[in-house]
Specification:
This protein is mostly helical. It has 2 domains: about 140 residues, no CATH class; about 130 residues. The chain is built from 14 helices and 2 strands; from the N terminus they run ααααααααββαααααα. The protein has a two-stranded antiparallel sheet with strand order 1-2. Strand 1 and strand 2 form a beta hairpin. Helix 10 runs antiparallel to helix 11 and helix 11 runs parallel beside helix 14. The longest helix has 22 residues.
């Protein structure tokens, strides 16, 4: 059964896509990634548990002296109970969210540089490093928790801007009820726990565009609706129209299972969170664009 917020359209993109804050869930996920770092080192570098723990203590000491600028002699270097600098800092309730991201940025760069030194005279046939494992784990958690940031090329970058979130909310606020339901459902499916239903989120996003066009033209496909709007004097840039025709075609591919059942399980492409969010933003923007054209 649909939840109250879903039925009545009270879900907001700004509540689902987390930016300029770190929720307790995201904070816990980041700290868990740090907790797993010694084991990642052991796995990737085929070293003992003691060596993995020693590596982690060196990382913590570097954060202590070079990021926090504390005295080295005040660092607790007890092998079995080392100072947990990074996670303590991230869990500090009075620290700004961006200061915590600064520390994470700092640690990511340290790990990358450490891998560069480690593999400078070692063969790495699989190209799996501590950095790649740690970053993949962070990005997976960020996607799962709808955090508007990702680690890209050693840096944490924003992938969902305030303007994109506003685009979704504008489309929801300024469209008829049936279109709002599609967009709200797309948002709900994107935010579903423990894993988003990205395939059906994309379906709902493109269905919102179809519903909008159908309401304005009476046509039941996007292509026919756009043609009819053009016949009625609405001018679209040719490239923009082609772009949306291709996006619509993407949602109708049989191998993605977005609009049709998958033909089989082998080789089927599963869309991810980035694609679902891209489609939600793009379809919302297109609805807003069409709405302004028709005013």
């Amino acid at each position: 059964m649909a939840r109250f917020s879903e039925r009545y359209g009270y879900t907001k993109a700004s509540d689902v896509i987390i930016r300029e804050q770190i929720t307790p869930e995201i904070q816990n996920a980041i700290c868990t990634c740090f907790d797993r770092l010694p084991r990642i080192v052991c796995s990737v570098r085929s070293c003992s548990e003691a060596e993995g723990r020693r590596w982690y203590i060196c990382l913590e000491q570097y954060v202590w002296t070079q990021f926090l600028n504390e005295r080295e002699n005040n660092f607790n270097a007890n092998f079995y109970d080392p100072t947990i600098v990074s996670t303590d800092f991230i869990e500090e309730p009075f620290k700004n969210w961006y200061e915590k991201i600064d520390l994470l940025d700092f640690v990511i760069e340290y790990i990358y540089d450490d891998d560069e030194r480690y593999y400078s005279h070692r063969f790495n046939p699989n190209n799996v490093t501590v950095y790649s494992m740690f970053v993949d784990m962070l990005n997976s958690e960020f996607e799962r928790l709808n955090f508007a940031y990702r680690v890209v090329n050693k840096e944490i970058v924003e992938i969902t801007s305030e303007q994109e979130i506003a685009t979704i909310e504008t489309a929801i606020d300024n469209t008829p009820r049936n279109i709002q339901l599609h967009l709200n459902r797309a948002l709900e499916l994107y935010a579903q726990r423990p894993e988003g239903d990205y395939r059906n989120s994309i379906k709902e996003s493109i269905s919102a565009v179809e519903a909008f066009c159908r309401e304005k033209t009476g046509e039941n496909t996007l292509g026919k609706a756009l043609n009819k709007l053009e016949q009625n004097g609405i001018v679209f840039p040719a490239v923009l129209k082609q772009a949306f025709d291709k996006l619509y075609a993407y949602t109708n591919q049989s191998d993605s299972g977005i609009r049709h059942a998958l033909m089989d399980d082998s080789g089927a492409y599963a869309p991810g969170g980035e694609e679902a969010l891209f489609m939600l933003v793009s379809c919302s923007a297109f609805i807003n664009y069409l709405g302004s054209k028709l005013e």
